[in-house]
Amino acid sequence: MDLQVVKQLRDLTGAGFGDCKKALEATKGDLNAAVRHLKEMGLASASKRSGREANEARIFGVWGNKGVAFVILSCETDFVVRNETFAEFGKKLAKSIADSGATELNQEQKDELTNLGAIIKENIQLKNLLFVPVAANQSAYVYIHGEDGRKGSWAVAQVEGKDPKSPEVLEQVKEFALHAAARDPLYFSDKDVPESYLKEQREIFTVQAKNLGKPEAALQKIIDGKLEKHLSEIVFLKQPYASDGKMTVSQAISEVSRQLGCKFEIVSAGVITKGA
Questions:
Q1: Helix locations, the chain, DSSP H
Q2: Where do the domains of the chain lie, and which CATH numbers do they carry?
Q3: Are 134 and 63 in contact (CB under 8 A)?
């Protein structure tokens, strides 16, 4: 048995030495047939594993040619979360999505994901995919928290009057992405909050206000105050800015615009977690 052919087969498939040797023996040394044979065996194995729960996950994110992309890959064990082959595949997949602007995997990517599960011998699935478009006159920053990708966040800025990819602009966009990671906003702006959610919160705050025993005339003011405070905790633009609690994020954006001497506006920001 030519060891170079075995090595070549290993490089092509990622399968173990013994499996490659057996595949070449079964196909009488035909490399292409051996690759197909291993894929068939791998797919069979992956199919058997598909029933096992994939409770672990890792987030991968990147800013590419078309925009910002995040992919969440689930697996069975935290050991695989830190696996180099798993990590490289996740980064490559996120980059491909960011460069193409796709909102779902193509068949080739689905096949590669299945093959990855066969190589690593775990049930590996795409748990979530998020794409945020970024125009030529916009700047973006992607932040991944923790070596095992527990959380991802992003910020996209519209910039006029300055190079959106200049270091000073990128540094400011980074700060807003880090803010999102620190404060976990549920919504970007007031208009993104569903009316059904607002209605539910008003009902809750109405009961709370009545329990205070305040005069009827004061109830609405109390309810409005409670709702506004709640929105300042969950809406990105209303949150106290993490780098300076004296300003809201919206006020911080205006201050950055003044400091940079250009029009600077955060148009998209948020956070994504492994549970998403």
A1: 3-13, 17-26, 31-49, 78-81, 84-100, 107-120, 167-183, 195-211, 216-234, 249-260
A2: 3-49 (1.10.8.10), 52-133 (3.30.479.20), 194-234 (1.10.286)
A3: yes
Cα–Cα dist 220/103, whole Å:
44
Token look-up 């607002």 returns 198
pTM for the complete prediction? 0.79
Confidence of residue 46 (pLDDT cuts 50, 70, 90): very low
Which amino acid does the sequence have at 163?
D
Residue with tokens 């070449």: 24
Q: Is 186 exposed, middle or buried (0-12, 13-18, 19+ CB in 10 A)?
A: middle
Computed over every residue of the chain, the mean pLDDT equals 89
- Alpha carbon distance 5, 1 (integer Å): 8
**Closest by alpha carbon to 118, among 82, 94, 86?**
86
Q: Which residue has the higher pLDDT, 123 or 159?
A: 159
Torsion angle, alpha carbons of 87, 88, 93, 99, to 10: 120
pLDDT digits (tens, 9 = 90+) for 163-187: 999 999 999 999 999 999 999 999 9
